[in-house]
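In response to reviewer comment 3 from the previous cycle, which asked for concrete evidence that the modeling workflow produces usable outputs, we include below a single protein chain processed end to end. The sequence was submitted unchanged, and the resulting structure tokens are shown without manual editing.
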Amino acid sequence: MSTITIEKARIQDAEILTDIKKKVFDAEIEKWLSYAEDVVDYNIQPPGYDSIEMGKYMIHELNYFKILYHEELVGGVIVTLEGKRHGRVDRIFVDPDYQGKGIGSAALRLIEEKFPQVKSWELETSSRQLNNHFFYEKMGYKKVFESEDEFCYEKRLQLDATEAGETREIHIQGDTLRQVDLSRLQVEQSKVTETDFYGIDGSHSTFSNSSLMRAQFSNCNLSESRFQNINFKKSLIADLNLSHSEFAHVSLGGTYFHDTTLGEEGEPVRFERCDLKGALFKDSNLKNVELIDCETEGMRINKILVKDLLDAYEIVHKKR
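The workflow returned the following structure tokens.
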């Protein structure tokens, strides 16, 4: 048996994996950011890296593998499959006590073997983590983008003849492409700015590592779609049916919800482990929940019914 193996992580592994992850990234923070207190580098201190609940989410939703060294859990690697032949290494970490033993490089090779259909792997790392640059380049990754804070790397593997397929002949009339079957087509490094897509069946398609800035989606069926690792800053999300959807580990600072209902079934919304400090709920139906000018039947603050608090207030107020 090989001394280094990977296995799909289980929910029961979340606590120990989070402990290792915290140990790794805390050491990286001390190494690369100790000199700059005001610097925030999300590659060195990724959001939720020390959260067990975030770990459980990643185990449930992503391809999260634990790394075993002589059958002892020493790290993890998290990947996302993007489309038919693309993959992303979201995170890889090895306990500092076990680094320098070739565990990280072996884990990446095992991931490539686990997903042989993937012919292009990508990842990001901090511009500050110089040792990471050397490591990824040693593993065959090439730098494709560089900024002051971040380096992006890609590793492209060779397509065999059957995967490459045959070149399709596409005919365009004027500026319109009509009634063409583009199913299972792989579109890469292409420019489609200011292009209109109308009456398209794009079910099971994927958009990854792409810029869709100022794109518009209207009158579309996006049921059972997945949006992960997306920048929705300053976006408008309106006139949607989000019944039975889930929002996990989302930053909602400055978000404005209005004219929103719970649908015909009236199933309650649940907020768990959310920081809503300073939030304002106004002119809303909050039965059995918690505010200002709201229906508060059954609502409690510190286990005290709001109705009882209001009754007590009225009594005190009348005595004045």
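Residues 256-320 form one domain. We consider this sufficient to address the reviewer's concern, and the full set will be provided in the supplementary archive.
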